[in-house]
């Protein structure tokens, strides 16, 4: 029985379409430096108040005052903790930065070119990142190449499940409405690739030189999107 052709591409962001350094050295410090003033200014806003209450609940510190909650959240930033209320607040702060022009989404040029071509060829494109859906839309919506959000048919964050669990990719395939084997997943994290393949998706890893790819990995590995034949889910040529 022939292998089904690819009908959709699901891509990670950090280390795949964008540099890890942009997230670690630009976005995180930007959010941390503005967290206190943002919360002070917007603490009464319902969405901000809800995120602060959720952070206190998650930390089992319901009696924390505003200053203590800010300190808690700043500590989570330093720990790179994937906490929902923190991601919610970071997204709000980044939105201010993007809309003011202080931030520009740093998307690799080869990713922009490939994603544009794949969309034009009829492939559906989706994003799966540990960052919130708002953060995903912002990084693609305010780039040096313009607004790239029209390229994507949907966005997924860890609300659908951990990126290291096969069940998350099964759930995504169900949401998309395709069989897992009709979806190509791209990531720089081989554990994520393992989980996606376990769910039945086809996988290709990106080696942007920022993480160590295990030498014994069984996933195809490329350095840029140029080497990917998305329609077949294979590597076009050595690179």
Provide a brief overview of the structure:
By secondary structure, the protein is of the alpha/beta class. It has two domains: 142 residues, Rossmann fold (3-Layer(aba) Sandwich); 78 residues, Transcription Termination Factor Rho, Rna-binding Domain, Chain A, Domain 1 (Orthogonal Bundle).
Mean pLDDT: 94
CATH class of the largest domain: Alpha Beta
The CATH topology annotation of the largest domain reads as Rossmann fold
The parts where pLDDT drops under 50 for at least 5 residues are: none
Report on the structure:
This protein has two domains: 8-18 and 105-235, Rossmann fold (3-Layer(aba) Sandwich), CATH 3.40.50.1000; 23-100, Transcription Termination Factor Rho, Rna-binding Domain, Chain A, Domain 1 (Orthogonal Bundle). The protein has helices spanning 20-42, 46-58, 66-79, 84-100, 109-120, 133-141, 166-176, 190-198; strands at residues 8-11, 124-128, 152-156, 183-187, 202-206, 221-222, 228-229, 234-235. The radius of gyration is 19 Å and the shape is globular. The protein has eight helices and eight strands; from the N terminus they run E-H-H-H-H-H-E-H-E-H-E-H-E-E-E-E. The relative contact order is 0.17. By secondary structure, the chain is of the alpha/beta class.
């Amino acid at each position: 029985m022939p292998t089904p052709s690819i009908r959709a591409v699901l891509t990670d962001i950090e280390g795949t379409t964008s540099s890890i350094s942009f997230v670690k050295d630009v976005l995180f410090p930007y959010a941390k430096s503005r967290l206190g003033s943002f919360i002070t200014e917007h603490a009464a806003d319902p969405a901000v108040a809800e995120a602060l209450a959720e952070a206190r609940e998650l930390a089992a510190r319901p009696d924390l005052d505003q200053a203590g909650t800010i300190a808690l959240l700043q500590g989570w930033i330093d720990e790179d903790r994937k906490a929902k209320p923190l991601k919610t607040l970071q997204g709000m702060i980044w939105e201010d930065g993007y809309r003011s022009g202080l931030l520009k989404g740093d998307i690799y040029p080869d990713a922009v070119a490939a994603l544009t071509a794949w969309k034009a060829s009829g492939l559906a494109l989706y994003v799966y990142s540990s960052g919130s859906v708002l953060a995903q839309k912002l990084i693609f919506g305010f780039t040096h190449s313009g607004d790239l959000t029209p390229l994507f048919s949907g966005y997924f964050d860890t609300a659908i499940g951990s990126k290291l669990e096969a069940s998350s990719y099964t759930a995504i395939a169900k949401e998309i409405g395709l069989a897992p084997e009709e979806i190509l997943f791209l990531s720089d994290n081989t554990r994520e690739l393992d989980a996606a393949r376990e769910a039945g998706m086809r996988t290709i890893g990106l080696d942007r030189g920022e993480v160590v790819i295990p030498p014994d990995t069984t996933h195809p590995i490329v350095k840029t999107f140029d080497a990917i034949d998305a329609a077949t889910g294979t590597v076009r040529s050595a690179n």
